[in-house]
């Protein structure tokens, strides 16, 4: 059995990360995994998220156990035959990767980064996390992993902006496949509506709107994002981190 190409996609919150995972999961050659470090993150931080008990029961809470699984044999691709998948795409919320969690296990992965303009992201995040801190945006962790990967490879890994993907899905996804070094597959542009067996148990809480989609939806009209005043310092700190990554956008 050949070892799959492991692809880690690192996103911040309130982005199109699950839609992007849907795109990858539409390929017959690809297995997908949804936020495998979520339970470990909740167990370590004690944070009270919706569905916390179910999440903790659904995944290992020890990050090393998760890392061993993610670097081990790949699950079968749901849409494929009994053949081992050629690709294994793992969607991560970057803030789930806490400082005490090792990084060396990630060196065998191909990495991509999904970003969103921080004012828009924080305006949305504030609705569910009004006391958000900089680390809750995922941007510090994304920059850390981006720079670590760049140093290891000698060149920058791919960065996508969620709004740009929604505006031009095919060019964005073609560029992502090329940057990662995998073949393009037009199946990534469409998917069947509804939940997936590969969705986390939090799917009914967070993915209800996604369940209605069959592809990437065009972005909403541009309008100024209103960030609550208490989060103004977070926005100020987030901007240079976002700009560091946005300079390497592809597509």
UniProtKB/TrEMBL annotation:
One of its GO terms (biological process) is carboxylic acid metabolic process. It holds the Pfam family Sulfotransfer_5. The keyword Iron does not apply. GO terms for molecular function: transferase activity. Keywords: Transferase. SUPFAM superfamilies: P-loop containing nucleoside triphosphate hydrolases. Belongs to the class-IV pyridoxal-phosphate-dependent aminotransferase family. This is Sulfotransferase family protein. It comes from Rubricoccus marinus. The lineage of its organism: Bacteria, Pseudomonadati, Rhodothermota, Rhodothermia, Rhodothermales.
